Each structure stands twice: as structure tokens, then as C-alpha cells.
Amino acid sequence: MYFQRQHERAFGTFPLKGDTLRNALTLALDVGYRAIDTAQMYQNEADIGPVLSSSGIARDELFITSKVPNNKFTEAEFSTSVKKSLQALQVDKLDVLLLHWPPADGGIEKPLELLLRAQQEGLCAHIGVSNFTAEMLQRTAKFTDTPIVTNQVEFHPLLNQDTLLKAAADTGIPLSSYCSVARGEIFKLPLFTELANNYNVTAAQIVLRWILQKGVSINTMSTKAENIRANFSLSHFSLSHVDMARIDKLTHTNYRIVDKHLVPWAPQWDS
Ligand SMILES: NC(=O)c1ccc[n+]([C@@H]2O[C@H](COP(=O)([O-])OP(=O)(O)OC[C@H]3O[C@@H](n4cnc5c(N)ncnc54)[C@H](OP(=O)(O)O)[C@@H]3O)[C@@H](O)[C@H]2O)c1
């Protein structure tokens, strides 16, 4: 469901704000994006709301994801903070609400309970998690029978996420990507230029197609019309098994962008 409703790819909005965000989001909607990814932490929901409202696109065509930060995982603050997101985004309900990060102490059960309650209250249609480890996915699947529609994680060809992919398959909690082009790092690798020439697409399209063929839906952000267009246009080609395997080999690089040096409360990652 999530894979399809995200149309396999969503437009990410971090760290965009103000006019840069308005311009990029308008371009993304023009190109055809209908799935939008934001978070309370990005402090841009109030910029996104008016763009969506004035777009003329019917609410039920849009698929809006937002996230609750882990300093709001209390009885007193959780649902109030989600209601603020709704107000800023000018919608009655989110399509998906995620726990942005697991709590620093690893105690995921309480926030999962608050997330389920927000869904029961009608604040969101679907629920999910982000930055959960394989072990946390196993605990989540044991904790609730309610579908957890995604675990949004760093996912690109320079990072080995095999453990997480296996946990996703075992638990039925699918992955979605962030840092999909490793914030530009992938463009330094000649393999992607070679494959881009062979398939007559761009290097970014090769990377994003690899992610899709791994069974992972995509979040990408760009401020440039040509990149936004390219990132959305992934259906007209597919990578051969041989080329998938060539890209797979790069994952041993284990280059991770979002780690404890950026996010002190990041968990102990699987790889
Ligand atoms: N859950 C979480 O903890 C978490 C963490 C980080 C991000 N996210 C979400 O995931 C989204 C995407 O991740 P991200 O923005 O960090 O990483 P990303 O998509 O890997 O990188 C974005 C950067 O790549 C460039 N880029 C994008 N498409 C390109 C293309 N086709 N060709 C060349 N350059 C391209 C963009 O520059 P230009 O503007 O110049 O195109 C931008 O600077 C975020 O916006 C956010 O919504 C979630």
C-alpha cells in the first residue's frame, strides 16, 4: 500500500524553508509528485500548507507524511504536537505519521502506544517509524498487529542495509529511503556515469532505480527543476540483474551520513 500510494517516490522537504521550499515544492507538484515528506523538526510545515492548499490538487490525491520528534514522546505533548502539524499543514488528517527517531533509551513501546492512539483519534490514516534498527522492527512487529507502513531510513548504494532489508522482509515493515543519492556522494563514482550512459538516463536515476528494485520506496529532495524531473521519472527503464549486482558491491563502502556526529540520539546502527 505505502509503496503504491507514495507512487514509489516522495518529495522530501528537508532542509528547505521559505521561498526555496515554496519554489521547489511547486515544481515538484507540477512534475507530478503527490507524496510529500516533512517533519515537525524541519520547521517547514507552515510553508508547505499554503502551497498544497493553493495548488488546486484534491486532498485525496495528496499523500502527506509528517513525523513527531522524540522529545514529544509524552502523554502530555504527543497528540498536541501532531495537532500543531495538522494546523500548519492546513489538513484534518495526515496520511502517514512517523516516529522520527527511536527514543535515546531504546524504549520504543511507549511512543508506539502514543502513535497508535493518535491513529485511533483520527489524526492520521497510517502510522510508521523512522531510523529503527532491525531489532526495533522485530519488537515493533511483536508489539502491535496494526500495519506499520514504513521504516524511513538512510538508504543508498554506499551503505550496506542488508540486515535491515532482512528485518523488513521478516516483519512486513517496508523500508523507504532518505539520503537516496547520499547527498551527492554517489556522483563521485564512475560506475554511475558509465551506467547512466548505457541506459541513457542520469546517474541519479540509476541510483534511484536501484533503490526501487531493492523493494524500497524513495524520498528525494532537490531544488532544481531538471533534478526534480529526473528523480520523478523512473518508470521507463529497469536495471539488469548484472548491473544491480555491480551496484550491490558498492554497499561494502558503508558510508553513513546520518550518524551520532549529526544526531547524538541516533541508535547503534545495524551495520
Ligand atoms: N527520517 C529522517 O531522519 C530523515 C533524515 C534525512 C532526510 N529525510 C527526508 O528525506 C529527504 C531526502 O533526503 P536528503 O535530502 O537528506 O538527501 P538526498 O535526497 O540524498 O540529497 C539531497 C541533495 O541531493 C541533490 N540532488 C537531488 N537529486 C539530484 C539529482 N537528480 N542530481 C543531482 N543532485 C541531486 C540536491 O541538490 P539540488 O537541490 O542541487 O538538486 C540536494 O542537495 C529529505 O528531504 C527529508 O524529507 C529524513
Q: What do these coordinates show?
A:
- The chain is α/β, with parallel strands linked by helices and about 270 residues long.
- It has a single domain, classed as TIM Barrel, CATH 3.20.20.100.
- It is built from eleven helices and eight strands.
- It has helices at about 1-5, 20-30, 45-55, 80-90, 110-120, 135-145, 160-170, 190-200, 205-215, 225-230, 240-250; strands at about 10, 35, 65-70, 95-100, 125-130, 150-155, 175-180, 215-220.
- It has an eight-stranded parallel beta barrel with strand order 1-2-3-4-5-6-7-8, surrounded by six helices.
- α6 links the parallel β5 and β6 (about 150-155).
- The longest helix is centred in the first third of the chain and has 14 residues, at about 20-30.
- The radius of gyration is 18 Å and the shape is globular.
- The two termini are about 30 Å apart.
- Bound molecules: NADP nicotinamide-adenine-dinucleotide phosphate.
- NADP nicotinamide-adenine-dinucleotide phosphate binds near residues 183, 204 and 258.
In brief:
With 271 residues, the protein is an alpha/beta fold.
Give descriptors for this structure.
about 270 residues; TIM Barrel; 11 helices; binds NADP nicotinamide-adenine-dinucleotide phosphate; eight-stranded parallel barrel; alpha/beta
